[in-house]
Amino acid sequence: MHRTPRREEILDVAAALFAVHDFDAVSMTDIAGAVGLSKATLYHYFRRKEDILGLIVLGTIRDLNAFVDAAIAGVADPGQRLVAFLEAQADYFEQHRTWFQVLLTRFNNLTEPTLRDPAIEWRVNYENTIQGIIRDGVNTGVFNAERPNSVVRAVLASVYWLARWYRPDGPQRARDIAREYADVVLYGVAVRRRNARTARARSAR
Amino acid sequence: MHRTPRREEILDVAAALFAVHDFDAVSMTDIAGAVGLSKATLYHYFRRKEDILGLIVLGTIRDLNAFVDAAIAGVADPGQRLVAFLEAQADYFEQHRTWFQVLLTRFNNLTEPTLRDPAIEWRVNYENTIQGIIRDGVNTGVFNAERPNSVVRAVLASVYWLARWYRPDGPQRARDIAREYADVVLYGVAVRRRNARTARARSAR
Description:
Two copies of one chain form a homodimer. In chain A, α1 packs across α6, α4 packs across α6 (97-106) and α9 (158-165) crosses α10.
């Protein structure tokens, strides 16, 4: 599909509406009005509202995958690879916040298979990237082998942390927030280690 | 306000609607129909939709505070206090999932001050409870003093982790999920400590 300026503008304007309003509450009339087109002209570009949503969602998850893959490609150590992953995710989030917001919150409004199916494949690919980093980290003794699922969950939850704490006018860039998060989930906030507590408890008996 | 059976039923049914649908998309007619009342009868119980929302939100945040306060009251060690806090939050979430969902997602639809103001006070109280646990933990050397704000964020984010991973028909109880989360944020998923990496880097120079 060719990305012409007008098509791109429609997608951007529609994304801004989808990010703020319930999907059902946004009409093609609303989108046309926000872009400054007649409804008839809008229909020349896109047949249905769901096609617009689909291109936003699919475009974002596909480009996010490419962006993150490029960022982690040269990083061998799994711990550093994880940090690189989280930072890249944060950078992409910051640069494409509206589209990212739509991806995060409106994915399930996309029901039509032609666009939903590839979007789901990209989402699976993203989760496989995460699983790969963690598997390598567990196999090389960098990550705790006892709870690989916790690690996967911690990484998958990172976007919620970003979305919750990021302020465009705030003191922290998105990657600062991502680094803070990586620090918490990698090293924890407790001073004493889990093993140290168990060892002390054993010796006290 | 007396909680009579019919008022309670209306609140429960309305909560189920508010949890699933956009607030603006739920009408008093919808609520009346779902309870099996005429709209006129519903208006005898509640004057406006926002009053219903207000009682759900305020009741939940108030009772959640009381529940958690009772659970942590006898726990001295800040690390254990934090775990007790997260487990109590999880228990309450599991027992009152629909109302909790409304609290999490529809708080900002509550604009009328009479109900919003006390709800905000209870929310501030909740955050103060968290801040108190963390302050005690930092002062006693249990939590990392370098990043107290990260710790606060980690605790505030715990509800999102619960909401994201909890399945009522799943293998984990809510408090299992909370314990898993506590383990990640307290001790991290990396095998080597932050200090150990820095020390090795220093000795390698």
